[in-house]
Amino acid sequence: MANVTLSQIKKQYGNTPVIHGVDIEAADGEFVVLVGPSGCGKSTLLRMIAGLETISSGTLKIGDRIVNDLDPKDRDIAMVFQNYALYPHMTVETNMGFSLEHRGGTKTEIAERVKWAAEILDLSNLLKRYPRQLSGGQRQRVAMGRAIVRDPQVFLFDEPLSNLDAKLRVAMRAEIKNLHRKLKTTTIYVTHDQVEAMTMADKIVVMNAGEVSQVGAPLDLYDRPANRFVAGFIGSPSMNFIDGVVENGRFTAPGIDLETPSFTAGETSRQLICGIRPEHLVIGGEGISAEVSLVEPMGSETQVTFSLPEGTIVGVFRDRIAAKPGDILTLGVQTDGCHFFDPLTDLRVE
Amino acid sequence: MSQVSHVVAKSDRPRPLWTIKRRDQIAGMLFIAPQLTGIIVFVLIPLGLVFWYSLHEWNVLANSFKFVGSANYKTLLADPALPEVLTATGIFSAGLVVFNMSLALLIAVLLNQKLWGIVVFRTLFFSPVVVSLVAWTIVWSFLLQNNGGINAVLQTMGIEGPNWLRNPSTAMFSIIVIQVFKNVGLNMILFLAALQGVPKELYEAARVDGASAFKQFRRITLPLISPTILLTSIITIVGSLQVFAQIAVLTQGGPGMSTTVLVYYLYQQAFQFHFFGYGATLSIMLFIIVAVLTFAQWQLRKRIVFYEN
Amino acid sequence: MKTDMSIRMRTMLYGLMCVLLIPFVFPTWWMVTSSVKPISDIFAFPPDLLPRTYDWSTYQRVFELQPFAQQYWNSGYIALLVTAGTMIVSSLAGYAFARIRFPGADAIFMVVLLGLLIPAEVTIVPLFQMFNQWGMINTHWPLILVPVFGAPSVFSTFIMRQFFIALPIELEEAARVDGLGRFTIFRKIALPLAKPALSAVAIFTFLHSWNLFLEPIVFISTPQMFTLPQALTQFTDAYGGAMWNIQLAAATLTALPVLIVFIVAQKQFVEGLAHTGLKG
What are the residues whose beta carbons fall under 8 Å from the beta carbon of C126, sequence distance 6 or more? Predict the structure, then answer.
């Protein structure tokens, strides 16, 4: 097992840069999730760690070794692909033992390792089957089995759950997390799903347009997003953003006049963006008066869209709401529910 | 600052000579080496030599090889046989392509119906493809004799059949027909695969729209299989220019010059009359014709092909 | 497509197909049956669909008049060598063109594709000269080397390339992570998955070699070295007239084995061809 260190990693295709100097550190045994919208470069980065893409510049270390120029096979990593990439012409057993076969393991060694992995993943009675005879979840587990038999220093996952249906995804999420708890292998996991990132990661790396937007523990990102992008990306439904002015400890915008106890800067009249998570709005508080435009009851909670003089905001409430479109409600914000961002730099302001 | 440390980091680390990329490039070149060598030795060099020969008067029997510049090309243009040869070639290729493609499409549409035992029919329609070409040709030459099977059948219907292969007006027609029945199975299979690739929903939508079966065929089937039609027509035309065995076995270019197509004429000039230089000149012309036809069809696809992946 | 076809419609379709089948099936049928008819019965009128009397002596004569067994062996071993060779050369090249980035790959691919454009007849004169220089006239080398490495194999390379392009690339990436080099990936992952394309290549190549006619008559001059298509045309009497019954017996011997293999394996044949990536 080992830590993985990326320093100033860059990637360009021809003259088009796609990764602009990324620094990431995954400690030994850590579960790091790279998350971001599609096209942000997270998969490219993972493939560079795997050795499937060349690194244009910067250094990549696994343990104490610089591995920039090593073949994937010499990096001591294992990867789980989005489409599983199981060899269709081999049985589950052969699929799982294949890499060991090419690393010169003896037959009994290989059989033992495969048996061990199959037991962990509950695949023991599927070993003689071919991938086409398996369900989606089973294929997923075989792909993981193929990765763990080798006991590599690092696991790489490339959106491994995106081909599963919603229910199975939740189950596999727990299974992967369990597996990590058992094996304690350094893991780098790529996903576009922020729920996956929040629930699985020890550390989340949010990426946007080829750059790292923020690194941190899941709840840190939720509680203190470093910029507008992370604030909008983490959390569902997305954070509401309102353009306004902060003056004398109050945030004002059309239809809005909020007290901002956490933000008491003495400076006068500063243009800022206020971000409020939908779940932090409370009905009957003070500060916002808005017209209900849509009510969506979900059972466990109710999602309400309000229209303001400028734009709309969304609120999520645990209680059943009796409001109808057209009603005017007054809303407040929970303590510490307001995040402020600079409209020019999009950075968090405190 | 970061720029500086970056450069230092890079120079600290000696890059191995055999990077992943370089090793892969070597692998790639090794993989294609046998094919590329073959193409150079058996296609490119011969092609250059053909051109070189075409500038010479070369009679193997007289053991003469002398540079004559464009003389062979002047001979070619003045060759009294050339118009006849080109006409025969044109008739053969055009007749073959039209007959082959329409028959292939007809059979493919028939085989695309859900009927019991359709596989048996498919197998039988395809079977001539695997029968040895010369064997197939010999059988037909027997059937087409003056006292052969075809005329015998015609006689029962009270028709006096011609001597098919010895009559200038029927010899070419006979060769085309023999060749079409021999090879139409290939195109038929490709068409059948294309027909089966047309999404069923399109037909269902057309039926809901009230389109007749004929209209469905013309407005949906044909446009959607047009890439296959184009590709098979290129292959069929280029193939038709190479018809040799059939003519050598059936008519030896006769009667008269009526079935002397370009490749047969080339063979006669080079290997029967031993005019290698002139044969080479004819080869150049054959090459140009194939290249122009292929290029033209490739251009046409922009206009004709409605749909491509 | 429509399952609710009326009986009348179905009868019409069957009728139409049966009529269309006559020119496809009758010649082969007639070749096989006539090869065991006495010569006088071949010309019988009306023609018999089955022989009235069987005369097997024609088959004996086939082997007496020419070294037919030797010629059979020549055709067979050449076709098998050419097929095996083409499968190797074309799958290697097709894989590289589909998957490996190397300098000049696109330009080299265009040059190789030129082979598709060149009928064998165009280069036959210089090839004759080249093989003459190398002392390979009246040997089987030209019939093996040119198809395996030259223009005829380009079509196979194209088929293989189209197939490999469509294979999911993740499989090969997984194999790289699993520790395989380029060649092992090719041999253990790509090639086993390319069976449909390989069988199409094998069928095309075998038939092409088995039917080859111009090249043998240009390069080969003694009956011991003949291949079957060439030998078939040589069964003539002292006056150059065709010995029909013997020719038909020899033709049957040439055609029947391939035909039987085809009927047994027709599914693989037809599907192999249908999936050659020629669908456009």
Answer: B45, B46, B47, B49, B50, B53, B280
- Which ipTM value was assigned to this complex? 0.84
Q: Report the alpha-carbon angle C273-C274-C278, nearest 5.
A: 90
Distance of CA A312 to the CA centre of its chain: 27
Contacts of A70 in chain B (CB under 8 A): 20
CATH for B71-304 is 1.10.3720.10
* Two structure tokens written together for C225: 């070295």
List the structure tokens of C117.
């454009």
CB contact under 8 A, A72 and C177: yes
Inter-residue contact A114 to A96 (CB < 8 Å): yes
Interatomic CA distance for residues B221 and B258, integer angstroms: 38
Cross-chain Cβ contact B16/A71 below 8 Å: no
8 A C-beta contact, residue C231 and residue C250 = yes
List Cβ neighbours of A246 (8 Å cut-off, separation of 6 or more): A260, A263, A265, A269, A270, A272, A340
Asked if residues C209 and C140 have their Cβ atoms less than 8 Å apart, the reply is no
Structure-block tokens of residue C6: 């009326």
Distance CA A338, CA B212 (A): 66
How distant, in Å, are the alpha carbons of A226, A269, C212 from that of A258?
A: 22, 14, 90
Which residues in chain A are contacts of B13 at CB distance < 8 A?
59, 66, 68
Cβ neighbours of residue A190 under 8 Å, at least 6 residues apart?
A33, A34, A35, A42, A43, A45, A46, A156, A157, A158, A159
Tell which residue, B197, B217, B181, B219, has the closest CA to residue B103.
Answer: B181
Q: Kindly list the domain boundaries of chain A, sorted by start residue.
A: 4-233, 240-341
- Please tell me the CATH code under which domain A240-341 is placed: 2.40.50.140
Q: Would you say how long chain C is, in residues?
A: 280
Q: How would you write the pLDDT of chain A (350 residues) with one tens digit per residue? A: 689 999 999 998 888 889 998 999 999 999 999 999 988 999 999 999 998 888 888 999 998 888 888 888 888 899 999 888 899 999 999 999 988 888 877 889 899 999 999 998 889 999 999 999 998 889 999 999 999 998 899 999 999 998 888 888 898 999 999 999 999 999 999 999 999 999 999 999 999 999 999 999 999 999 999 999 999 999 889 999 999 888 877 888 888 888 876 665 556 678 889 999 999 998 887 888 889 999 999 888 999 999 988 889 999 998 888 888 988 888 888 888 889 898 899 999 87
**Architecture of the structural domain at A4-233:** 3-Layer(aba) Sandwich (3.40)
Residue A6 pairs in a beta bridge with A24, A60
Homologous superfamily, domain C64-274: MetI-like (1.10.3720.10)
B 28-57 near C (Cβ less than 8 A)? 28-29, 31-32, 34-39, 41-47, 49-50, 53
- Chain A residues bordering chain C (beta-carbon distance below 8 Å): 47, 50-52, 71-73, 77-79, 81-83, 85-89, 98-99, 102-103, 146
Q: How far away is chain A from the Cα of B21, in angstroms, using its nearest Cα? A: 8
